[in-house]
Amino acid sequence: MTTQDFTTTLLVDQSPAAAFNAINNVRGWWSENIEGGTGKLNDEFIYHYKDIHYCKIKLIELVPDQKAVWLVLDNYFKFTEDKSEWKGTRVIFEISQTDGQTAVRFMHEGLVPQYECYEICREAWTGYIQDSLRSLITAGKGQPNAKDDDGFGAQLVEKWKLEQSV
User: Fold this and answer.
1) Of 79, 92, 59, the residue nearest 153 (C-alpha)
2) CA–CA–CA angle 161, 52, 79 (5° rounding)
3) DSSP codes of every residue in 102-135
4) Per DSSP, what are the bridge partners of residue 47?
5) What is the pLDDT of residues 66-109, one digit of tens each?
6) Is 164 exposed, middle or buried (0-12, 13-18, 19+ CB in 10 A)?
């Protein structure tokens, strides 16, 4: 059985511990607009991007150097009909070693093609994981959304709006 949940995997030469630490440094690869804890079991944090996207996330599973699981407690998208599409979904990071490299498998369980936000979210997660998280793991610096920035997130929303108006 194949899953439709969004999944992407990256391979790096760094250790599983380096990957795990980078994943938990959410401000270092996703957004500087994170409020709350991001590194301990049961921590809760809020992500927000202007008035476009807000979500509240809880860390429900942490296995050092192996796995991190987030539960989306609440979500708001300004640009979708169902404003709470992510609510109740899980974001899963699984870390393993293969052929001398560390593999980070990212899955947003519940983010499926039937969601209105799927394409924009797929594109955003791919950028954050394959580019920003990879850079944080390998070079020590990611490319998160800066505070009050009109960067990557705003560009994707504008692209999505254009596609919807065609």
Assistant:
1) 79
2) 40
3) EEEEEEEET--TTSTTHHHHHHHHHIIIIIIIHH
4) 34, 55
5) 999 999 999 999 889 998 999 999 999 999 998 999 999 999 99
6) exposed
